[in-house]
Design goal:
Elements: E1 10-12, E2 15-17, E3 21-23, H1 39-47, E4 53-59, H2 77-92, E5 97-101, E6 120-121, E7 130-133, E8 137-140, E9 145-146, H3 149-168, E10 173-178, H4 183-188, H5 203-221, E11 226-230, H6 245-258, E12 263-267, H7 279-288, E13 293-296, H8 301-309, E14 315-318, H9 320-324, H10 328-334
Parallel strand pairs: 3-4, 3-14, 4-5, 5-10, 6-9, 10-11, 11-12, 12-13, 13-14
Antiparallel strand pairs: 1-2, 7-8
Length: 360
C-alpha cells in the first residue's frame, strides 16, 4: 500500500488524531428503549476505534428531531449514560469520538416521535416521500409546523444543552449536521426555505439559523470541540442546487472559520448519484475555512491519499467501508481486501450486519 499521509497524525481542536481516516456518520438504527444507546452500540463503535476520528451516527438534540425509528438521542440523563458506554469503549482502545447532532426537522414520521414531540421545520410544506416506521411500515412524511421565533430560539438552545451533555457523556466533541436535508440544511436550502422573515429570502437570512446554532454550541463547550458537516449540491430530502448556492456557502464558511471551529466536513454525494460538488468550489471552501478540512464521498485508500497529498483535504471520511470493516485502517495499510457491506442489515435491529463483520 503506497498511502503514507493517510496514516500520519493530525490535530483538531486540542486533540491529536492517530491518523487521517475519519469514520463518517452513518444512521444504523440500533438504539433501544426511548432512543437510548446501549451496549451493542458501544461494541460497534469500540470495534472501529482505530479510525483517527469516529463521528457517530446522527443523534437528535431534541425529542422533535427523532425522525426515524431507533435513532439515538442526547437530551436526557438516560441517553448520557447510554452514550458513556460508547465513549468509554472507544477511549479504552485509544480512539477519539465526536457525536453528530442530527435534528431531522420536517424529515419525520410522527409514528417515530417520542410522546409530546412534534414535527417542525422552516415552513409547513411536507417533505415529499415516505419513511419507514416500526409500527406502520412505510408512511408519508408528517405535516410540519412552521417554526416561530420562539421555536427557533428553543431549538438553538437544545443544541447548546445537548453539547454540554455530550461532554458529560465523554465525547471529544460534537459535529453539527448541516447536510442531507435535515433541519439546519432545511434553513440553508432555498428550495426548502421559502420564508420571507429574517430567516429566509436572502443569503444572510438563510445562513442565520446555522450560524446561531454554531455560536450557541461554541458558547456551550468551546469552538475547539465543535465541527460542522455540509453537503452543498446534495439532493437528499428535496434539497438540491439553487441560485446563489456558492456565494451563500462561501459566506457561511467564512463566518464559521471566524469562530475557529475544530473542523469543516464537506460531503460530495456524487458517488450515490447526486450532482458532483465542483472541484473548484471544494477548493474555494477549503480556502475560506482556516482550519482542518475533511472531505467525504466515494474515497478509497488511493484516492484519499491523493486528496491529502494534493492539499485538497486534511482528513478523509469513509462511511460504508468502516461499516463493513471494523479494522479498515489496518486493511488499508496492508492493501488487504475489504468486506462488502450488507445493505439489507443497515437499519435492522440487533447484531447481524452490525457487530459481526470479520476482521483480518
Amino acid at each position: 500500500m503506497s498511502a503514507t499521509k493517510l496514516f500520519t497524525p493530525v490535530k483538531i481542536g486540542n486533540i491529536t488524531l492517530a491518523n487521517r481516516a475519519v469514520m463518517s456518520p452513518m444512521t444504523r438504527s440500533r438504539a433501544v428503549d426511548a432512543n437510548t444507546p446501549n451496549t451493542l452500540m458501544a461494541e460497534y463503535y469500540g470495534q472501529r476505534a482505530s479510525a483517527g476520528l469516529i463521528i457517530t451516527e446522527g443523534a437528535s438534540p431534541s425529542p422533535n428531531g427523532i425522525g426515524y425509528p431507533r435513532i439515538p438521542g442526547l437530551y436526557n440523563a438516560e441517553q448520557v449514560a447510554g452514550w458513556k458506554l460508547t465513549t468509554d469503549a472507544v477511549h479504552a482502545k485509544g480512539g477519539k469520538i465526536y457525536i453528530q447532532f442530527m435534528h431531522t426537522g420536517r424529515v419525520t414520521q410522527a409514528a417515530n416521535l417520542p410522546a409530546g414531540a412534534e414535527t417542525v421545520g422552516p415552513t409547513d410544506v411536507v417533505c415529499p416521500g415516505e419513511m419507514y416506521t416500526d409500527s406502520k411500515g412505510m408512511q408519508p412524511h408528517s405535516q410540519p409546523r412552521a417554526m416561530t421565533q420562539a421555536d427557533i430560539d428553543h431549538a438553538v438552545a437544545e443544541y447548546a444543552t445537548a453539547a454540554k451533555l455530550a461532554v458529560e457523556a465523554g465525547f471529544d466533541g460534537v459535529e453539527l449536521h448541516a447536510a442531507n436535508g435535515y433541519l439546519i440544511e432545511q434553513f440553508l436550502n432555498a428550495n426548502v426555505n421559502t420564508r420571507t422573515d429574517s430567516y429566509g429570502g436572502s443569503i444572510a437570512a438563510r445562513n442565520r439559523f446555522a450560524l446561531e446554532v454554531a455560536r450557541a454550541t461554541v458558547a456551550a463547550i468551546g469552538a475547539e470541540r465543535v465541527g460542522i458537516r455540509l453537503s452543498p449540491y446534495g439532493v437528499f430530502n428535496s434539497t438540491g442546487p439553487f441560485d446563489e448556492l456558492e456565494p451563500q456557502y462561501l459566506a457561511l464558511v467564512k463566518e464559521l472559520s471566524a469562530m475557529k471551529l475544530a473542523y469543516l466536513h464537506v460531503l460530495d454525494h456524487s458517488a450515490m448519484g447526486a450532482p458532483p460538488v465542483p472541484e473548484a468550489f471544494k477548493l474555494a471552501l477549503r480556502k475560506a475555512f482556516d482550519g482542518p478540512f475533511i472531505l467525504a464521498g466515494g474515497f478509497d485508500a488511493t484516492t484519499g491519499e491523493a486528496a491529502l497529498n494534493d492539499g485538497r483535504a486534511d482528513m478523509i471520511g469513509y462511511a460504508r467501508a468502516f461499516l463493513a470493516n471494523p479494522d479498515l485502517v489496518a486493511r488499508m495499510q496492508k492493501g488487504a481486501a475489504l468486506n462488502a457491506p450488507d445493505m439489507s442489515t443497515f437499519y435492522t435491529p440487533g447484531p447481524k450486519g452490525y457487530t459481526d463483520y470479520p476482521t483480518l
